[in-house]
Prior knowledge:
Elements (H helix, E strand, L loop, with lengths): L3 E9 L11 H15 L5 E3 L4 E4 L9 H11 L5 E4 L2 H4 L3 H14 L2 E4 L4 E2 L3 H34 L12 E4 L2 E4 L3 H15 L2 H11 L6 E2 L5 E2 L6 H9 L6 E4 L2 E4 L8 H17 L5 E2 L5 E2 L8 E3 L5 E7 L5 E7 H4 L11 E3 H16 L2 H5 L7 H10 L1 H4 L7 H9 L1 E7 L1 E7 L1 H8 L12 E11 L2 E6 L8 H18 L4 H8 L3 H8 L6 H8 L9 H6 L6 H9 L2
Parallel strand pairs: 1-2, 1-3, 1-4, 4-5, 15-19
Antiparallel strand pairs: 5-6, 7-8, 9-10, 11-12, 13-14, 16-17, 17-18, 19-20, 20-21, 21-22
Helix pairs in contact: 6-7, 11-15, 18-19
Amino acid sequence: MKKIRCAIYTRKSSEDGLEQEFNSLDAQYEACAAYIASQKAEGWVLLPERYDDGGLSGGSMERPGLQRLLADIDRGAVDQILVYKIDRLTRSLADFAKMVERLDAAGTSFVSVTQSFNTATSMGRLTLNMLLSFAQFEREVTAERIRDKIAASKKKGLWMGATVPLGYAADGRSLKIAEPDAEVIRRIYDLYLKHRNTRVVKEAVDALGLKTPVRKLISGRVKGGASFSYGHIHYILTNPVYAGRIRHHAKVYPGQHPPLIEPEVWDSIQDRLQGDAAKGRTFIKRNRNGARASASPLAGRIYDQTGDRLTPSHSKTAKGRKLRYYVSHRLVRGAAPRDPSGWRLPASELEDKVADLIRRHLNQPEVRAGILVDAAADETATIGTRLSRLAVGDAAADKDTKRHCLDLIERIKIMPGEICIAASAKNLATVIDVDHTRINEEVLTFRSAFQHRKRGVETRLIIGDEPAEIDATLLRNIARAHRYFDLVRSGKTFAEISEAEGVSKRRVQQLIELAFLAPDIIRAIREGRQPVGMTSDWLKRHAFPPIWTEQRNAFATL
């Protein structure tokens, strides 16, 4: 009878308990050894060498014990690998596929003693594939169940974790007021009720010497003890938790914790903050002929999804050329923290495309027919003639047309995936020479798709029904990733691939992850519909999960 040489591999992610005389690695080893003993009649023999990895994650193959085992497999010293559970061997689907190919090349199989299958038989391989499929399905269903549970719990007003707001302390599934931090929150609200201006509140808070609380993180690093920033003060003033409520995404529910601020007072402050954001400002200068000329014609009229104003900014190239931008105010204001939700948009391109949106909107027959609430047929024709200078030609190419179109704008709101433009009834009435009270306000506001894509340091805006932009570089990198993965499956190492391809080993490791993108995401990339911000440059700097549902969730937030 042929002897089947068996090696046992054990692993534990953390080092907790490894100092004990009988630890988790020993327990795994004994279970596998007992299984080998039960198969003695089949010729199974336990090899004396132990392959243990204590305190190492299964997300990487850079483990001393595993590498020794694979080396012994390559030289033909092992016929069968035994593990307590399949996740002891690896937790990475990519590493698992690579490992199976390597085992097949050496004629070696493996057995999971607690899951009753081995890869030496066709039924074992079928069981393995089913197990991995159900494992991924279970992870995705569990994630959905957790999200649903959080949503249902917040609807009941329960506190579901995350960073506890200043002034409160966690109290099970609720919050309790924590003094003296709660007094700091009340002081900030009182200052706003007194001054009605966040800038003045910031100055008053600094004058009082109020600081953010000092907290010690799990890592041991100390955080806090700094002055309150504008962004932190605005967050405190707009956080519904202080009114005894719980927010879940865009919805707010009554909470089960006591309010620090009376709900009626909090609501009035929100009305005031929104009113201040809607006022807008204009920065207008005049040329030699006395005509209006603005370096940034949208200044004071463009806001982001948080209500923060986008202010004009500029930089200069090495050759001295001036580049204008519209930047979320919180990104350029004093010591305000960097906010990933802030915007930095190229001014000229934004102005050109917004002007063209206005032109095309006013060129629609249904809009022209509905501009006045009580227009007669002949008056509608007259209005069409008066609007002709806005509707003929390209607003981005003709400076006068562009200026007239931008003059009509009262407010622009930019948010991920969408731009909302509101025209001014008074300015439009001036153009068509009617009383502004006759303007139909329903046609003044319209929305359009909006995306911005980064290519290195360059940003391109895609607004409305512009043709999709296909990222050829990203498509080429995905093709390379699949070629690299095929080479890995054939037994090539990252070092061998990098030498053959003329790229660094790190680059091969970065690109190969693209081979595990969800099919619908690859299809969207091929059609130019990839999530906003998903570029080759972005993928160089970020890792993404192997589970397709988590990929979609991650890319949806870009």
